[in-house]
């Protein structure tokens, strides 16, 4: 497969919605070995966010949508491992990433359905290796969630924080993923606009 291109932009410069596909434990259970996908958030003409609710293996075909307006889909349970995407951006590109900025709950992988760019993966056993101070029910917190300081949350603006021992813990295990909020140069990727994607939880 061709490599994904690393983006020279950051999430703040993207137009349209930044959408997330996440797996979060919920009350709806599917049959063993399967998960039910729910269209959790949608608005005509702007996009959709999907949540997998049973923590088993999930495959979701995410089809191209028109990214217009400024609606942001965000699920506020955690820790969780989202795949984030902004589709149909300038220069006919999709911007995609896996983020550990909200922590980690389950491994995931996504790939294009054709050979236009490579897979992104975060499949390390992070929950088992999680530092004690970041451990949480169902996963491993990002240090921003635990400590809430600029050192980990980058709240003072661009260039206000650097990698830390905690972000390096995540980056060493999932080099494709965001390990802290300003990890754009090594974590935000592009594929051609119009690409269809397959997302797998617990590959």
From TrEMBL:
It comes from the Eukaryota. Signal peptide: none annotated. Gene3D superfamilies: Thaumatin. SMART domains: THN. Pfam families: Thaumatin (PF00314). InterPro entries: Osmotin/thaumatin-like_sf, Thaumatin. This is Thaumatin-like protein. It comes from Sesamum radiatum. The lineage of its organism: Eukaryota, Viridiplantae, Streptophyta, Embryophyta, Tracheophyta.
